[in-house]
Amino acid sequence: MISQFFVLSQRGDNIVFRDYRGEVPKGSAEIFFRKVKFWKDDGDGDAPPVFDFGYVQTTSTELLKSYVFNEPVVVDPAQFLPLGSAGIFTAKRMPVTTIAKSVVANERGGRKREEIFVDIIEKMSVTFNSSGYILTSEIDGTIQLKSYLTGNPEIRLALNEEVSIGRGGGSAYDYGLGTGAVILDDCNFHESVHLDSFDVDRTLSLVPTDGEFPVMNYRITQEFKPPFRINSLIEEAGPLKAGVIIKVRADFPSSIIADKILVQIPLPPYTTRVSFELEPGAVGNTTDFKEANKRIEWGLKKIVGGSEHTLHAKLTFSQESHGNITKDAGPVSMTFTIPMFNSSRLQVKYLHITKKSKSYNPYRWVRYVTHSNSYVARL
Asked: 193, 205 in Cβ contact below 8 A?
């Protein structure tokens, strides 16, 4: 399994970047670039094209259930073979029911709480030029279903009727008026989904199993409005000094709040000291100069829609840049999470559950969240 794939320029800039698994630390592209660039210095020949230690190629849910528990279970160790290279494939499976239990407390009297969760999760990749204009943009989305309904009743999930698949027609996005078609480049569905009426009214029907699974995966490369705009500038301020300005603007409604924001920028390798200046009234912001890898980190606790935030940094160098400062620094990268927001405007219009009786009224939860996958601004 590939964790990340990227194509780098001769100076180490990300031309193409894709993070498939999300478990590799940030800065892996830079680490890879430096390993390849200085590989011959160690006299080991050409650098290999791939660095991976590999993963066990067993992803069967039924097999993995034997080793995943939400509650402690007392077992006799003699029943299991050693979990060595072969043991994990030959050990006897023990039935596990706790994996599908609801995370919410049961109803009074010990009855299981009937509920179903639908999550629209979007991972966004955007690249800006130094002036803030979009160079590339893409959304990888998933409609995730988590069901805790007894009897596995049939459900119907209705999406926007404006959803279209393929590159036919244009698109318009206006957060204030809520207009614009949702154009998917491609999509795929879980095997349990019936598409009999999808072409007519964009409705999905299925009988969900216990637990969590993706109902639909989709990809969007058509024009959409990114939630943040990043403008950055770095320029010399003397023989051994330079200044950095980073501006982040939130282009979404003021009722939405983003959190877990981290802005990073690699600096020239000859940077020795950095001093920061934040805007007046900034609360919950953190700044740090990671001297080991010559990187600025700017953390923001939250960003309210419609607001703009600015960071000023003064750099001190151990040698003159000789006009190469923009080549030796950047690009600016940003990570964030925005609850109850999605740029694609894909929506669940309604969630219908087949009733077993008039009193059957399970809890329904529909949630939206946007994460950054690769959000980069060039200097």
From this structure: yes
Q: In this structure, what DSSP letter does residue 254 have?
A: T
Q: How confident is the model at residue 95 (pLDDT cuts 50, 70, 90)?
A: very low
CA dist., res. 205 & res. 215, Å (int)? 10
Beta bridge partners of 273: 316
Task: Give the contacts of 348 (CB within 8 A, at least 6 positions apart).
Answer: 118, 120, 143, 157, 158, 159, 366
Question: How far apart are the C-alpha atoms of 237 and 320, rounded to whole Å?
Answer: 11
309 pLDDT band (50/70/90 cuts)?
very high
Going 102 to 103 to 104 to 109, the CA torsion angle's sign is positive
Residue among 14, 133, 13, 379 nearest 232 (CA) = 379
Three-state SS at 87: helix
Domains with residue ranges and CATH for the chain: 4-42 (no CATH), 61-101 (no CATH), 120-225+345-377 (2.60.40.1170), 228-339 (2.60.40.1170)
Look up residue 285 and give its two tokens: 């912001």
Structure tokens, 329: 């620094």
| Residues 263-288: b if buried by 16+ CB within 10 A, e if exposed | bbbbbbebbeebebebeeeeeeeebe
78: left (phi over 0), alpha (psi -120 to 50) or beta: alpha
Six token digits for residue 186: 């491609």
φ, ψ for residue 192 (rounded to 5)? Answer: -85, -5
Total residues belonging to the chain: 379
Q: Are 265 and 246 in contact (CB under 8 A)?
A: yes
pLDDT of residue 82 exceeding 70, the answer is no
How far apart CA 241 and CA 250 sit, in angstroms, is: 30
Mean pLDDT of the chain: 81
Give which of 34, 344, 296, 357 is closest to 164, Cα–Cα. 344
- DSSP designation for 112: P
- Could you tell me if 85 and 334 are in contact, meaning their C-beta atoms sit under 8 angstroms apart? no
pLDDT value of position 94: 38
> What is the mean pLDDT of the segment spanning 223-251?
92
- The gap between the terminal CA atoms of the chain, to the nearest Å, is 33
Angstrom distances, CA of residue 299 to CA of 19, 77, 194, 274, 311: 22, 47, 44, 16, 10
